[in-house]
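Hi support team,

I submitted a single chain yesterday and got back a structure, but I'm not sure I'm reading the token output correctly. Could someone confirm the output below corresponds to the sequence I sent? I've pasted both exactly as they appear in my results page.

Thanks,
R.
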Amino acid sequence: MSSLSFNANNALVSDVQSLHSLKTQANDPKAAREAAKQLESLFMREMIKSMRDATMKSGMLENSATSLANDMYDQQLSVAMSGMPRGLSDSITAQISRSIGKDSLAAADVTGEMSSLLGDDDALAQRLSSTVSLASRSAMAQLPGSNWAPRSAALDAYAPAPKGRDNFVLSHLPAAQRVAQESGIPATFMMGQAGHETGWGKGEIRHADGSNSFNLFGIKAGKGWNGKVAEITTTEYIDGVPHKVKAKFRAYDSYEDSFRDYARLITENPRYAKAEAVAGSGSAAAYAQALQKAGYATDPQYANKLSRAIESAAAAQRSNQA
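Hi R., thanks for writing in. Yes, this is the structure output for that exact sequence:
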């Protein structure tokens, strides 16, 4: 049992008062471990909530009382699951160690450092979310059979992409809307094409080390491209017959860079002038046909597949806004 007044047996990091209590215990080296356990509790609670939200509900027993009971149960379950040996809290503790420049917190003097790490209460939620995200990615890389392993400080490049149509659209909508205002290409057109090219986030182009190229549109790295490149095996249609070939694709620093480069390609390359002209019509079919006629892809069914993907992205956006 920890000597701290704040421990994983009676509180979660979602409780601001408990968080403040933890910060006051920064002179105790055990505070780092307790912080890790609380961060793991928060992570586990969000994971359980996501699993519950994804479960089909009958509607017969769904009401405010059962929702409250489920929430309380999930909270207690997340507390009980945290702090297990070789669990996520070990990775979080290691992450905290690296964040404050210590190889081991067990023998370190952490007076004032934990308080500095957590920061002001107003910025606390953002810092906690970031730390949980970094630590969870490190833990995922250690799972047996995992082929995903972060090798640099830029761990976002190794993070799993948002999967599923609704998650994909919700995640990329802000960037797509910003680029849409600049370019005039509807956000749903871009999200639909990005969704089609990546299988709604399931098949993004990655570098050989597993890091993300952030290329959402399958744009290849031609002779005029001077940026980063990712080389992968892809499918090309030659005389209507699919073939597996090696190809080099453009790589970016963010998803928004990918949206912006795509919009620049459509609006500045004369090859896609027809597609740009019909973009404002609101017709997904016309836009998709124009792209296929311009040779955007070699798949003979590309226009039909793309128009359906655009309509699907529009439906997802409407659902998220409802």
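A quick pointer for reading it: Confidence is low (pLDDT under 50) at residues 1-11, 102-154. Let us know if anything else looks off.

Best,
Support desk
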